[in-house]
Q: What sequence folds into this?
DNA sequence: GTCTATACGGTGATAGAC
DNA sequence: GTCTATCACCGTATAGAC
């Protein structure tokens, strides 16, 4: 059974927003990509493009949050390894998508930070949820909570920036180089 | 004497692109902000919006390159201090501009990475020039050249990501936290 | 040579057919 | 209740007035 129309619209939006940005993507293009008739958009999202954007950001955000947990669970006892895996997986995904699949939030976040409070706030919440997820794992590895929170922010910043550079350059090197150095930082902070 | 019309158009473009993105900024808005009549745009930029974008990216890029050099020169003997200053200055500029003045390249880079080769290439060149500038200073402080290049990439990634987070959150904390940790990384790499 | 007025396509949004 | 046909508007680009 194929996903319902509403979900297809949400996922088509998320994909197009991350490739082309929010302003650069038309609603017509979204309905076409989602295989949904034009009229259904305003049926499911009466708030128009902005509501669709807010929900698409939240949707992508929670999908990636689950992916974080998956990667962390896979190497439960080695948090540094998990962070490294995450950079590695992102590099592969980016390359395999012909450099289209970067961060699903960052492009929209930069576009709307000064132009739409509802959208900006949706991005704030996603970033916060990601940071919290990373911080919890670092704390679980024995790093004091306050320090774990700062390190999580640092990891996410380095990760986001590396995606910007790798996607622009069409080269996984920024992600690989940054992963190595960030892993070194985290390794030095672990107790024992 | 006021700058010439062409330059005003270029700088208005650069400012609007960084606040709202490339797709989200109209040519009408650019001419209005630059105090230039509508017709002058296609006189100075016959290649239309894309040419204007390419030149605006290059213009911002070289302005920031000069700023890099200025900050590095100010504390010539302490490259870690310079990097820290750069994060600090960016945090101040971001806050003082009411969270509008982030990176003049990153927003456009993410928007166009999959949609315009000329624009993407302009962004590639700017990032490369910035990395090279940082790498040269790190090498000058005694770090082997290959390692200096990797560290420069790392610094730029962390910096770009921190701007994304700080601008989205409207909080200088990501920039401050990341600056501290990156400074620590660099400090540990210096000889002596 | 510089720019005002206009063309044409695509945008987000809606009213009314089924 | 679901969606097709249409709207008014703004986007980029251009032709021709000065």
A:
């Amino acid at each position: 059974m194929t996903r319902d129309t509403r979900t297809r619209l949400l996922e088509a939006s998320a994909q197009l927003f991350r490739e082309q940005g929010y302003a650069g993507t038309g609603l017509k293009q979204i309905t076409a990509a989602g295989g949904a008739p034009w009229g259904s958009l305003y049926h499911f999202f009466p708030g128009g493009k902005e509501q669709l954007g807010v929900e698409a950001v939240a949707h992508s955000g929670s999908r990636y949050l689950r992916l974080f947990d998956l990667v962390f669970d896979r190497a439960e006892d080695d948090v540094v390894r998990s962070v490294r895996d995450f950079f590695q997986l992102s590099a592969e995904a980016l390359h395999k998508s012909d450099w289209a699949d970067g961060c699903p939030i960052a492009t929209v976040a930069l576009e709307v930070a000064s132009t739409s409070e509802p959208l900006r706030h949706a991005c704030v919440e996603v970033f916060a949820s990601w940071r919290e997820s990373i911080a919890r794992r670092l704390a679980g590895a024995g790093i004091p909570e306050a320090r774990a929170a700062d390190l999580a922010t640092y990891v996410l910043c380095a990760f986001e920036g590396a995606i910007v550079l790798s996607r622009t350059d069409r080269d996984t090197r920024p992600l690989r180089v940054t992963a190595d150095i960030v892993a070194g930082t985290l390794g030095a902070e672990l107790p024992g």
User: Anything to note?
Assistant: The two ends of chain B are 51 Å apart (CA to CA). Chain B has a mean pLDDT of 95. Residues 48-74 of chain B form the longest helix (27 residues). Chain B touches chain A through 47 residues (CB under 8 Å).
